[in-house]
Amino acid sequence: MEKETLGLYVSGHPLDEYMSYIKNTATITSKELIESTEISENGENLKDTINYDGQNAVFCGVLTSSKLLTTKSAKQMMFANIEDMYGSIELVIFPNVYAKYYDILQADNVLKVTGKISIKEDEKPKIIVSTLETITANKKIYIRLPKDKFDMENRVIDYIKNMGNATRGSVPVFIFYDGTNKIKALNRTLWLNVSKETLDVLKTAFGEENVKVK
């Protein structure tokens, strides 16, 4: 990673191209979390300080480092650092969550994190992670309907509706009608992530040749 080598981002922050999405999605920043604990520790403006402890939050950032641990029950969990435009905070990823999302918990991945904020005395703020998804800039998922299957449009939409929350993400989904110029953009609630698991589900349902990410 550029920052690890030079101590700063020379070619621009890795989140620059995602800022529009982050602005509309994240509910908290590292700056807000850190400032809230600093004010509390100094004993200043306590009546105006937001108590974030225990609140659910959405945080977006780039994963910068991680440490994998094995619990007493021989299950794996992870502590990781994630950085937004202002600073970094720690993620706590317990075994049940780690088992579900381990494949995207890689350094330099840009992630949307949903979880519960934990603020304890003499500790930096943390997020106890419940779900994760990759944020992919300027990519789209296209599902092609062959000429003899245009009447399956509603079936495709219903299938995606029922795919489950683990497949939801920030990537727009379009239905492309083969042999025509018609493309249908699906509702924002049906946008997906581009994890291997999600794409495998789509390819199994509609055929590998009919699912493309561009």
Uncertain runs with pLDDT below 50, 5 residues or more? 4-11
CATH class of the largest domain: Mainly Beta
Q: Which strand order do you get reading across the main beta sheet? A: 1-2-3-5-4
Distance between the termini: 25 Å
The number of domains: 2
* Cα radius of gyration in angstroms: 20 Å
* Class derived from helix and strand content: alpha+beta
SSE string, helices as H and strands as E: HHHEEEHEEEHEEEHE
> What would you say the CATH architecture of the largest domain is?
Beta Barrel
**CATH homologous superfamily assignment of the largest domain:** Nucleic acid-binding proteins
Helix content: 10-25%
Number of strands: 10
Shape category: elongated
CATH level 3 topology of the largest domain: OB fold (Dihydrolipoamide Acetyltransferase, E2P)
**Biggest sheet statistics:** 5 strands, mixed, barrel
- Would you tell me the overall average pLDDT? 86
Individual helix count? 6
* Share in β-strands: 25-35%
Question: Would you mind describing this structure in some detail?
Answer:
With 214 residues, this protein is of the alpha+beta class. It has two domains: 2-134, Nucleic acid-binding proteins (OB fold (Dihydrolipoamide Acetyltransferase, E2P)); 141-213, no CATH class. Helices cover 24% and strands 31% of the residues. The chain has six helices and ten strands. The protein has helices at residues 2-6, 19-25, 30-42, 95-101, 153-161, 196-206, and strands at residues 56-70, 76-83, 88-93, 110-118, 126-134, 141-145, 168-171, 173-177, 183-185, 211-213. The strands form two sheets. A five-stranded mixed beta barrel has the order 1-2-3-5-4. Strands 9-8-6-10 form a four-stranded mixed sheet. It is elongated. Residues 4-11 have low confidence and may be disordered.
